[in-house]
Amino acid sequence: MLKIGNSRETPLHLMLLPSVVLVLIYSYLPMVGLLIAFQKFNPAHLFDSPWVGWENFKYVYDMPGSMQVLWNTLTISLFKIIGLIVVPVTFALLLNEVGKSLFKRTFQTLIYLPNFLSWIIMAGVLIDILSPSEGIVNKSLGLIGIDPIYFLGDATWFPITMIVSDVWKGFGFGTVVYLAALTSIDPALYESARVDGAGRWKQTLYITLPGITPIIVLMSVLSLGNVLNAGFDQIFNLYSAQVYETGDIIDTFVYRLGIEQTQFSPATAIGLFKSVISFTLIALSYYLASKFADYRIF
Amino acid sequence: MTRDDTLGTRLFVIFNYSFLSLVGLICLLPFINLLATSFSGSTAVASGEVKFWPVDFTLASYEFAMRSKQFSQSMLVAVERVALGVVVNMLLTILAGYALSKEKGNFKWRNFYAWFFVVTILFSGGLIPWYVVISKTGLIDSIWALILPNALPVFNVIVLLNFFRGLPKELEEAAFMDGASHWTVLWKIITPLSKPALATLTLFCIVNHWNSWFDGLILMNRTENYPLQSYLQTVIINPENIINLSRGDYADLLNLVNARTSRAAQLFMGTLPILLVYPFLQKYFTSGLVLGSVKG
């Protein structure tokens, strides 16, 4: 072990030591803890609980509504992913036509702020403005003769509200990213297009869009890993029993099963299922990103 | 900008400005509404008179928050959490970022360590094992439960190691020639050169710690140990909590405030720190983004 040259590396090991210890305890130990998905876990016995094979998985699969939860998760997250690509690209293109100005900066400041607020604050604002009796949204709808809509209490409206509000909170980030990509397009391309008589629309279609396509592909591929993350922070703070049918997602389901009903093993079984699928998707997305967009994380 | 003044172009410009102004306004109005509510009298709010300007202007809701023992206590926990958490985060990020920025030739175990950390981004134990481990290590109801489990922000480490690798190699090579140790090189050469990157990451850690609420909610049994966002969560889920949990001297305020005005005031105060660091966040963000991820 102690060869010449290795002593130079000792400080580097020491620098990593505290992180290694903490990650081992708080990230790797819970992974070992996933074994309780195959046990009938009892906190008093910890890991001496009896082994039950795949029984917890069967139990969850047979639970009424568990497949609906998977379906809700997939639909909500897919619409969010699509919205968070289409909307930012649209706004980046529109904003690009404004030129460098105070207007552009002000707009960016406004749409980017919610990105940094917690879902607690956002949920508080949403609950307040969407209230059917007192909220400003329904009051405004009332002015044009629309009956109050139960955005958060109606099973049809709930997922739509989640998707729209998530896009509201997140689209500023994407817009900034795409706008940054737009500025790196070679101005000479526009110059020669104009000489050839291409109007603004044609320039957008044939120069701007192809110019940011790589980063659009990259962002889409990287969002693949989030397919099973439909947004716990958001939904947990806004949902209620009336909307479980369409609004309950894997993470909220695991929370109720594990923390509220203390069914530790079935909840962990779902967690394991989710972790394995997410791992596969993230690995796949990084592979695709490195292959097609030459993206490397380090 | 192009200067082809056809009618279509002019129409588009008008449409574009109006549309963007409208969207910007729609994004802003909910927060204005919240702010107006927080400065309004409870009767005006209850009768739905408040839109975008306070009605019966009063600071009662803010006074109520200040006198609420729960609010000031959780504000204190949040500040403590941010202060401790950011120091721990940044210290570990700098140390790990430096060690991992070395090439494999200079640090044989480099790739092993890098993957050891990256795996935690890809795979996790999930809610229940996470909770069990934290409670078995005796952190329930301790401030460290909010700091130690996420002590190393792996994404930030990747951002920083990529930044370190972009610094000119000659400086540290010269220092090594003169017999400097890794510690000297890190603190005397690398860190001073990386101030913008470190500032960006510090801001992210501040925002992250300030905004976290779930760990506080689950890992703290006693409400007086809740950080601000966890306490605000209980207020959002059950509006009456704002009065019930207050345990303060506020009887004279009760006819001036209601659950809605005081919630608005407390939510607004919960966003204040973010609003304060937001201009800096914005300034650094694009550079921070380029630092980390997209490399050719």
TrEMBL record, chain A:
Highest rank taxon of the organism: Bacteria
Keyword Transport in record: yes
GO cellular component: plasma membrane
Keyword Signal: no
Keywords tagged on the record: Cell membrane, Membrane, Transmembrane, Transmembrane helix, Transport
Membrane topology: Multi-pass membrane protein
InterPro entries: MetI-like, MetI-like_sf, UgpAE/MalFG_permease
GO BP, sorted A to Z: transmembrane transport
Pfam families xrefs: BPD_transp_1
Main location: membrane
Compartments, record wording: Cell membrane
Residue ranges of domain ABC transmembrane type-1 in the record: 70-285
Residues spanning the membrane: 12-38, 69-95, 107-127, 167-185, 205-228, 267-289
Family: Belongs to the binding-protein-dependent transport system permease family.
PANTHER family linked to this entry: BLL4140 PROTEIN
Protein name listed in UniProt: Putative aldouronate transport system permease protein
Organism (species): Cohnella lupini
TrEMBL record, chain B:
Topology relative to the membrane: Multi-pass membrane protein
TM regions (residue ranges): 12-32, 82-100, 112-131, 143-164, 264-281
Protein's cellular compartments: Cell membrane
Keywords in alphabetical order: Cell membrane, Membrane, Transmembrane, Transmembrane helix, Transport
Keyword Membrane: yes
Pfam families referenced in this protein's UniProt entry, alphabetically: BPD_transp_1
Gene Ontology cellular-component annotations: plasma membrane
ABC transmembrane type-1 domain ranges (all copies): 71-278
GO BP annotations, alphabetical order: transmembrane transport
Top-level taxonomic group: Bacteria
InterPro entries: MetI-like, MetI-like_sf
Family per similarity comment: Belongs to the binding-protein-dependent transport system permease family.
Name this protein carries in UniProt: Putative aldouronate transport system permease protein
Organism phylogeny: Bacteria, Bacillati, Bacillota, Bacilli, Bacillales
